[in-house]
Automatic annotation (TrEMBL):
Gene3D superfamilies: Acetamidase/Formamidase-like domains. Pfam families: FmdA_AmdA. This is Acetamidase. PANTHER family: FORMAMIDASE C869.04-RELATED. It comes from Streptomyces griseochromogenes.
Length: 337
């Protein structure tokens, strides 16, 4: 096996993409390329202290900067891009989280309007200990100090949408985007259906950790140093983003209302069982009903995202996505970066 090509990308502040679709590629890569990337946090690095309110230091709609897009040679509609996360590591010793007026799951929003004032705007700076792998929470209204384990992930991974659409990097949908699922961590392969020539892959929105649902709308947001391997499955369609870990198959769905996101993820999991594991549709429906786990990813974005996941050990011994996850895991183990 030949060593994969490694491309290092450290964007300048004016070199990020703010949408999926509509942005020119920063590079053309061949399948099998290793990308060694820096991604900025969702605030473009502007929230650095408890005094830096989002409404004052950030300019809407320039939120959630993405590193990319990358044109993948040979990718065309009907194919699937595979993105294997080799490592996801915080690039700084601190991260930021906030409340944002009229944003989040437990407040009035522009689309769920009610007659009450917005929640106050506040910033929490989390101290990250990258050696001990912890994130320190410091309460603002008491002397409470609590450590949580680091669990780095990417909130946003996606390709250009179909039908000539350009979507804000804040929006999750069938193209991927701002799904905000904690499942998008090192060791996982993400499968994205190709909608345009070259796919136009981008990623960003690093989280040092995030609870399921991202309730207040903002995770422990941080810049990341991330290494991924990008590959291509010709002739394999993927309607909604899928993830594969060593232990689970994971389907996603993004929509509003929340039950539609749930239904989309569950239906995709059923169809995955039918396509690759020999189930009939009704047998897959019954089996998934009794075996699936259904974490929430986000209940705050423009579309909500739900996950449906199933343990591989409970399934027939069959190959999925041409065994690509296992091969990419082996490549990742062999890398010395």
């Amino acid at each position: 096996m030949t060593d994969p090509r490694i491309l290092t990308v450290r964007p300048e502040p004016d070199e990020y993409a703010w949408t999926f679709g509509g942005a020119p590629p920063v590079a053309r890569i061949s399948p099998g390329t290793v990308l060694d990337l820096y991604t900025e946090d969702c605030f473009a690095g502007r929230v650095r202290s408890e005094k830096d309110l989002v409404s004052q230091v950030c300019e809407f709609p320039f939120l959630n900067p993405q590193t990319g897009p990358f044109h993948i040679e040979g990718a065309e509609p009907g194919d699937t891009v595979a993105v294997h996360f080799v490592s996801v590591e915080p690039a700084r010793d601190w991260a930021a989280s906030t409340t944002v007026p009229l944003f989040g799951a437990l407040t009035s929003t522009h689309t769920t309007a009610s007659l009450q004032p917005p929640l106050p705007e506040r910033v929490w700076i989390w101290q990250l200990d990258r050696t001990r792998r912890t994130a320190l929470f410091r309460a603002q209204d008491s002397d409470i100090r609590l450590e949580l384990p680091l669990d780095p992930m990417h909130g946003t991974v996606g390709v250009a949408p179909a039908n000539l659409e350009v979507r804000s990097a804040l929006v999750p949908d069938a193209h991927g985007g701002n799904m905000d699922t904690p499942e998008m961590r090192a060791g996982v392969t993400c499968y994205l259906g190709v909608n345009v020539e070259g796919a136009l892959l981008s990623l960003g929105d690093g989280h040092a950790r995030q609870g399921e649902g991202e309730t207040c709308g903002v995770a422990v947001e941080c810049a990341m140093n991330t290494v991924v391997i990008v590959d291509l499955l010709k002739g394999v369609t993927t309607a909604w983003p899928r993830l594969e870990s060593d232990t689970h198959l994971i389907s996603t769905g993004s929509a509003r209302p929340l039950e539609d996101a749930f239904r989309t993820a569950q239906l995709d999991l059923v169809r995955w069982l039918v396509r690759d594991f020999g189930f009939s549709e009704l047998d897959a429906y019954q089996f998934a009903t009794q075996a699936a786990e259904s974490p929430l990813a986000n209940v705050c974005d423009t579309n909500y995202t739900c996950v449906a996941k199933l343990r591989k050990e409970w399934l027939p011994a069959r190959e999925t996505h041409r065994g690509l996850h296992a091969r990419l895991r082996e490549t990742a183990r062999a890398l010395r970066l």
